[in-house]
Design brief:
Blueprint lengths: L2 H33 L2 H4 L19 H12 L9 H8 L4 H21 L1
The structure holds heme C (HEC).
Heme C binds next to helix 2, helix 3 and helix 4.
Length: 115
Amino acid sequence: MSMERQQFMLKSSLFFILLLSFSTLFAVQSKNLYNSCKYCHGYKGEKIYIGKIPAINKIGVNDLITLLKGYKQKSINQYGFGKIMYNQVKNLNNDNIVQVSKYIHSFRDEQVKSK
Ligand code: HEC
């Protein structure tokens, strides 16, 4: 194998390793973002909290983003428990909100797959 080809192979493997670590990091971060939510909304967003709040795993990504931004701005209070949610999202930035929304939405895909 030529030196150039070897270098090319080395560079492309390094690139893929880097890419792989980024996607793993992304997955880990999304999971961490959701970590505190699971006590009320369930591990897969399936729980009906205090018998009143519908499962969040059926909500579309865009709706999730809108809802979480609403709670962050303290502009929504759907079931009379808005204050609980204001505290949950106050430290999330817009990127975090998008990320955790996609993560919650992936629970729906998981259920479809397992059927
Ligand atoms: C201590 C319990 C608790 C925790 C922890 C919690 N939530 Fe909630 N969540 C609630 C309650 C209560 C509501 C209903 C608020 C209202 O009255 O509008 C709610 C509402 C929601 C809704 C809207 C549901 C709907 O039907 O429109 C979403 C989405 C949501 N939460 C996502 C999250 C995410 C994401 C986290 C973690 C960052 C989280 N929640 C953490 C209790 C909790």
